[in-house]
Specification:
Length: 706
């Protein structure tokens, strides 16, 4: 089967845009082929710093013919209508049409066979259209000014054909650039043009011209070469997938080199050194293999060229820049450890930075006040939450007081990604309690699904205070997430609270916690707390679903909440959901759920028909059949046992109590007619079904389970 080879060769494509651009190219071309009736077998797209490439295999040389029917006018219609039909259908006379009958009479139908288009003709239109409408996030006009592209587009390779013949060049022109079969290799090591045929030939010739087309292969080469160089020095590379992706997008021929800097720079915190080297030179750092995992005074860079001197000049140049940046970082670090002359009366260096933060009235949000006002809220909330999570209120308050002080430090001003970490470093330097220092760093955590959660009680109190203040604050001013937009990262904050509570087994009812946070804010709408709890329920569903749990079980547990007894203890909710999931995975659980649904469906139908609810005590004197007597007794026992187990928070025992209903429920439906002729018996049996529903409701709303 024929294959398509498409290469769009240009100046540097930013690394951050490459993957999406490759995906967009693949989607636009393959969607266009399918729309034209040209179904393919497989497609793969690649990106390097200078080229976007698409390979599509199994494309038929010609699309299938398409049979079309066109309904025409009635037999005997005016001549004008007949001529319009003939012209529209593309036929010469009515002899080429068929007469079809329906209830209203006879009418004409034209049946034609539309020949499929040649793939090369489709591509000659599709590819230039794709190029002209390509969705770059940022682009400019180049060349004649008619084409918008991320960087100047230099050449287009577009060939089509099978491996049994010489492929054809798909003929078209875009902005004065004609398609062809000529490309170039590495910018410096193999700049001469060369011709290509099909994909295998193309990949091999690129390799010979010092271009590795596959981004994953470039990543693998960089990773393995870096590991080898580090291992030879008794070191290990500090993994950084984001940097690896970026560097792989900056080079076509990766060559990994090692450099070093002076040991004296290691007095700067390791994370700051790493951030400096990463941000300015896109280099990796290494650490010792030993237990201390001390940062090494070395770096790894990835060059795009095999230099004649083995890379010595490249390493030296990068080393000069890194030393200058590290010198700046060391200066910032020492400056932060010193007093601020204008704020010395505030106390220690970190307290002085806090005083500066307050004095400058740095705004947190125009409707929520300054950072200083927010710190006051955090102090109060952390102090109130501390006893609930096993923390010392004084330590929690102190940590909350200093949590945002490092925002005024020189290092954080230069490297915002180390906020919190630098607060911890400076707190330890000025003699703060260790748990206070840990809380300053960890109160931002977790910042994503793979980030760790704080475990120290003081850190838990401050982290919860920070996130609850943000959530209640933005809820109070009606700045909630909408659709895919979440500018204040409120979904992440809610998931952070959920993970902190669940992974630490913290029992913290949320509604009272919301009330404590809201108390320090301007008056919020009455629905703020309940709306926010619903938001947490949705986030919990996402969290549990990612862990393999069913979201309908979360609904079934949350549905039990009332104004007097809300389901706002997330650790308890998760415990219920886990027990419910295990129960419904058993034969007893599946059978009981089926019986419950049957009972609920009958009840819903009869209650709607009769205009009343069948609740209340069951009349034992009206229980005549053994199956209904057994069910009544089993329901009473199960409801009592399940209720006691729920109070004791032994949800496994509660499910076990309900499991005993399986047999009696099955026997009841097998042998008993609910809608008996005797009205009193019918009512009593409907109450028995209602009792089944009530017993199940001790652990969850089974009606919400799919």
């Amino acid at each position: 089967m024929p294959e398509l080879l498409l290469e769009l060769f240009s100046e540097e494509i930013p690394a951050r845009m490459q993957k999406k651009a490759a995906d967009d190219l693949k989607k636009m071309i393959t969607d266009g082929l399918v729309a034209a009736g040209l179904h393919y077998e497989a497609a793969i797209a690649h990106a390097t710093p200078r080229r976007l490439v698409l390979h599509v295999v199994g494309v038929p040389a010609k699309g299938a013919d398409v049979a079309e029917e066109r309904k025409g006018p009635r037999v005997g219609a005016p001549e004008q209508a007949i001529q319009g039909f003939l012209k529209g259908a593309g036929i010469a006379s009515l002899d080429q049409a068929t007469v079809v009958s329906d209830k209203k009479g006879d009418y004409y139908v034209a049946k034609t066979l539309k020949p499929g288009r040649k793939a090369i003709d489709v591509l000659a239109e599709l590819v230039p259209t794709t190029i002209r409408t390509f969705p770059w996030p940022k682009s400019q006009r180049w060349g004649t000014g008619s084409l918008r592209w991320v960087r100047p587009l230099h050449s287009i390779v577009c060939t089509f054909g099978s491996d049994l013949e010489e492929p054809e060049i798909v003929p078209f022109e875009v902005d004065g650039i004609r398609s062809g079969n000529i490309t170039r290799g590495h910018r410096f090591m193999a700049p001469a043009p060369f011709s290509v045929k099909r994909f295998d030939d193309y990949v091999q010739k690129l390799q010979n011209a010092y271009v590795v087309l596959d981004a994953e292969r470039r990543r693998h080469t960089i990773r393995e070469d870096a590991k080898s160089l580090a291992f030879a020095q008794g070191l290990e590379v500090i993994e950084d997938e984001g940097l690896l992706d970026e560097v792989a997008g900056l080079v076509e021929w990766p060559v990994t080199l090692m450099g070093s800097f002076e040991e004296e720079f290691l007095e700067v915190p390791a994370e700051v050194i790493r951030a400096t080297i990463r941000a300015n030179q896109k280099c990796f750092v290494m650490r010792s293999h030993h237990v201390d995992q001390k940062l090494a005074a070395k770096f790894l860079l990835v060059s795009n060229i095999e230099a004649k001197d083995g890379g010595a000049k490249i390493v030296a140049g990068n080393g000069r820049v890194i030393r200058a940046r590290l010198s700046d970082a060391r200066h910032f670090f020492h400056t932060d450890l010193a007093d601020l002359p204008d704020y010395k009366e505030a106390g220690k260096p970190l307290d002085q930075r806090l005083a500066k933060l307050r004095a400058l009235n740095v705004v947190f949000h125009e409707k929520l006040g300054t950072q200083g006002a927010r710190v006051d809220r955090l102090i109060r909330l952390a102090r109130e939450l501390a006893p609930l999570v096993g923390a010392d209120p004084a330590k929690a308050a102190r940590a909350a007081e200093l949590a945002k002080a490092d925002l005024m430090t020189e290092v954080v001003g230069e490297f915002p990604e180390v906020q919190g970490l630098m607060g911890k470093t400076y707190a330890l330097a000025q003699g703060e309690d260790a748990s206070v220092a840990v809380a300053i760093e960890d109160h931002y955590k977790p910042q994503g699904p793979s980030d760790r959660v704080p475990t120290d009680p003081t850190a838990i109190a401050v982290a919860l205070a920070d996130k609850l203040d943000v959530l209640t604050g933005f809820w109070a001013i009606d700045e909630k997430p909408t659709g895919s937009k979440d500018p204040y990262a409120l979904r992440r904050a809610a998931l952070g609270v959920i993970r902190i509570l669940i992974e630490n087994g913290v029992r913290l009812p949320l509604l009272p916690a919301f009330a404590k946070a809201l108390a320090a804010l301007p008056k919020a709408a009455d629905t703020t707390a309940t709306d926010l709890l619903a938001f947490f329920a949705d986030r919990l569903k996402v969290q549990l679903r990612d862990q393999g749990a069913r979201h309908d079980l979360v609904d079934a547990v949350f549905a039990l909440g009332t104004a007097e007894a809300p389901q706002d203890d997330l650790a308890l909710v998760v415990k219920r959901v886990e027990a419910l999931g295990a129960f419904l995975g058993s034969d007893d659980g599946k059978s009981l759920l089926a019986g419950y649904k049957r009972a609920a469906n009958i009840l819903d139908k009869e209650e709607k028909k009769d205009g009343r609810a069948y609740t209340g005590a069951i009349d034992a004197s009206l229980l005549a059949e053994p199956a209904e007597k057994a069910l009544a007794q089993a329901v009473a026992v199960a409801e009592t046992a399940a209720g006691k187990a729920v109070v004791a928070e032994d949800f496994a025992a509660a499910m076990s109590a309900l499991a005993a209903l399986r047999g009696p429920v099955d026997a009841f439906f097998d042998g008993i007619l609910v809608n008996a002729e005797d009205a009193a018996v019918r009512e009593n049996r409907l109450k028995l079904l209602s009792a089944i529903r009530a017993a199940c409701a001790t652990v969850a709303d089974f009606g919400r389970i799919g």
